Amino acid sequence: MDMRHLQYFLEVARWKSFTKAAQSLYITQPTISKMVKNLEEELGVVLFDRIGKRIELTDAGTVLLTQAQHIVTSFEEMTSHLDELMKVKRGRIRIGLPPMVGASFFPKVIGEFREQYPEITLQLYEHGSKKVEAEVGAGELDIGVILLPTDEEVFDSFSFVKQRLMLVVHPSHRLAGHKEAALIELKDEPFLMFHEDFALHDRIIAECGRLGFEPLIVYKSSQWDFISEMAAANLGIALLPETICRELDEERLRMIPLTKPTIPWHLAMIWRKNSYLSYAAKEWIAFTQRMLRQAPHWYADSD
């Protein structure tokens, strides 16, 4: 028995017709009839009950159907994996990126990766860190970028940015001229925050809670540039990563180091542990690590 016997058997069972199965497989009807007959002889059972022009599975055929589907599916997955291994220049990678991370860190990486691997498709999905982590865990994304910490029992990862949050305020704000600001000083301030599916949202609320207050949130967004514009309009204060703050207009905004406590903003790329990772995805991970090592200015360790 070879794999073609089972594939031909499944096709006949699907169509309940030797003629239609042969047409589907682009082979002649005598060929598929002979293959099924050989399979029946090898197994010592009758697989199809031929009733005039109509055929039905016998009890033995029904038993084989379930097993054959598993075998053929496993075989196709194996050959697909081997094919990917042999054809690294082809493939598809589904990557989840939080909006401010994608805009700040990955255009150059993506550009150079596509130049080197033009036939690998990068499908990018913009979500908050929490949703990215959930979708990587569920297998809906191959790779994601998230805010640490993450579940090390579920994900493999590598960290590539270590920064802290900065206080962003209007130039007329009472803290605008300070060299640093403590979080407790913000307990009565109107906060401009990211939506709940951003890990940063929970991180800030948790740190405020440790100091005994709940932040007054007046606006939530998924876009850091909109949050910064709201701060520039003096509608509230924001806590944004150092990388984002470097892109803000210093004439319209003031960026002050946040202390007591320092809230870390540590980013990592994650993928599922102990699960199949396509060769294209492995190349993306290795390529990204090399790029980050060649660009040390991306690292800003504020520990």
TrEMBL record:
Residues 1-58 form the HTH lysR-type domain. It comes from the Bacteria. Pfam families: HTH_1, LysR_substrate. InterPro entries: HTH-type_LysR_regulators (IPR050950), LysR_HTH_N (IPR000847), LysR_subst-bd (IPR005119), WH-like_DNA-bd_sf (IPR036388), WH_DNA-bd_sf (IPR036390). Keywords: DNA-binding, Transcription, Transcription regulation. Belongs to the LysR transcriptional regulatory family. This is HTH-type transcriptional regulator CynR. It comes from Paenibacillus konkukensis.
